[in-house]
TrEMBL record:
Transmembrane segments: 40-56, 62-80, 115-133, 139-156
Signal peptide location: none
Cellular component GO terms held in the UniProt record: endoplasmic reticulum; Golgi membrane
Protein name, per record: Protein RER1
Matches recorded under Pfam families: Rer1 (PF03248)
């Protein structure tokens, strides 16, 4: 007969607690999924709080720069198609490139929910990191700002050229709605 040691009981208790916490977090994430506007307003509030924190402590610019680079990377994934027609031109699931091609909906490489979740986590982690003075590395801020703006412009230019070349728009501004008249019945 094996005896269960105190270490095994503690490990099981921690594993159960981690499982309960992850289940609870997943439950709330599932409930927030359909509320897109409210989620982004919450993330905007977190970003404003983070900005006030950076302004108040007058530091942690390297963490903010890394946060900006990470969000730029997420934005590129959000604006890119799941299957890049440039790398796999023979794939049948790519975007239509001619008017005669069948309609294929735009499928993002990074879905909106995962984009929101990653951006929110990044702001929360960056906010927590601002409470560790060892991470406040002195840098020359104008250089970081200029470099980030240059990187943003070059990256977005390349992405926009890609969007124009392969004729896709990653935004769904809204479905075209026919006003109520007789033409709706004949279309």
């Amino acid at each position: 007969m094996e005896e269960t040691g105190a270490g095994d009981i503690a490990e099981m208790a921690i594993a159960n607690w981690v499982n309960d916490v992850s289940t609870m977090c997943q439950y709330y994430l599932d409930r927030w999924t359909p509320h897109t506007a409210q989620r982004w307003i919450g993330t905007l509030a977190i970003a404003i709080i983070y900005t006030f924190r950076i302004y108040y402590v007058d530091g942690f610019y390297l963490i903010t720069y890394a946060l900006g680079i990470y969000i730029l990377n997420l934005l590129i994934g959000f604006l890119s198609p799941k299957v890049d027609p440039q790398t796999r031109p023979q794939d049948p699931s790519i975007l239509p490139t001619k008017d005669s091609d069948d309609f294929k909906p735009f499928i993002r490489r990074l879905p909106e929910f995962k984009f929101w979740y990653s951006v929110t986590k990044a702001f929360v982690i960056a906010f927590v990191l601002t409470f560790f003075p060892v991470l406040d590395i002195p840098v020359f801020v104008p250089i970081l700002i200029c470099y980030w703006i240059l990187l943003f412009i070059l990256t977005m230019r390349r992405q926009i050229v890609h969007m124009i070349k392969y004729k896709y728009v990653p935004f769904d501004i809204g479905k075209k709605v026919c006003s109520f008249n007789l033409w709706c019945f004949f279309m």
